[in-house]
Every structure is written in C-alpha cells, then in structure tokens.
Amino acid sequence: MPAQLVSAQDCPQAPDHSASFELLFQQIQAAETEWAARLISNQMWELWAQAPNEQAQAVLDRGMSRRSGYDLTGALEDFDRLTAYCPLYAEGYNQRAFVHFLRQDFAAALVDLNLTLELSPQHVAAMSGRALSLLGLSRTDEARAALQAALALNPWLPERGLAAPGGPLAPNVNKDIDL
C-alpha cells in the first residue's frame, strides 16, 4: 500500500520532458519501420509514466496494474486519488480516461482526455484516445480531425488504420460534392 497521499499542495511539479518529446516526435516521424516507431513510442510512454514523486508513482503503478487486471473500479479509485493529489500531472487524467473508455463511458473519457491535453497539448496517446472517444460518441467529423492531429505527430499510431481508405475516420472526400 503506498504512503498516504496528503493534499495537492504536497505534489511537486511533474518533470518537464518537452525537449525529449520534441526529439522523439522528430524520430518517430522519420521512422522507416513500425518496429522502429514502436521502440520510440515506448520511450514516450516511459516519460509520460514518470509521476512527480514516489507516492504518486506508487498510485499510478497500482492503478495501471489494476486496469491491466480488469479491476476497473479499483483502477478508477486510484486514478481519482492521483488526480486529486497531483492535479497538474497529465498522465493521471489520461489513465483515468482509459478506464472510462474501457467501461464505454466515452463522455467521461472525453472530459479527462481534454484535461490531459490542456496540461500536455502534444500527448499523442491522449489525442488518439480522444479520437476514439469521439467516435464512440458518434461525433465522426471531430474524431477524424482529432485522429489527423495525432497522426501528424505520430504517423505510426495503431489507430492509423481507422483513417485509411474505407476506415470509419478516412478523409471524407465526397463531403463537398453536390449531388
């Protein structure tokens, strides 16, 4: 059991990895294979998952473990605790959004994804999660735009197939044609 979380004033600022992300985005955009892109993506996840301190890290890790074990209620409790303790740590909201998404509560996921992106505007995983949540809410045009923004940063996202010809988020080329 992690140490008791006290209050938001006790949570330090999350590490600033903006320079590292800029380099990683350049590398992933230049990647020649899906395998190379996956290795770079893993480096991004390592940075996103660095919580502001040991207490926050313990709660994040436990919540992610619970989510992986499909204890979605327990994971949600942990991510609620984490976001209350570290309200400026984007990954807490992103992880809670993922739990909401798995529960098919797309509206709640969207709220947390928007908070994630306010704190970390280039969080490409949150951008693609936002696209999937919008799609789940049948907001296809917004989902398409959200996915295109994510793919501009990381063209190797697994969700890229949704934007391929015939996919549900493929560019709508007939939209402007009068019939």
From TrEMBL:
SMART domains annotated for this entry?
Answer: TPR
Q: Which domain of life is it from?
A: Bacteria
Do you know which PANTHER family this protein is assigned to?
TETRATRICOPEPTIDE REPEAT PROTEIN 6, UDP-N-ACETYLGLUCOSAMINE--PEPTIDE N-ACETYLGLUCOSAMINYLTRANSFERASE SPINDLY-RELATED
Q: Which InterPro entries match?
A: TPR-like_helical_dom_sf, TPR_rpt, Ycf3
Which terms are listed as keywords in the entry?
Answer: Repeat, TPR repeat
Transmembrane segments in this chain: where? Answer: none
Gene3D superfamilies the record matches: Tetratricopeptide repeat domain (1.25.40.10)
Name of the protein described by the UniProt record: Tetratricopeptide repeat protein
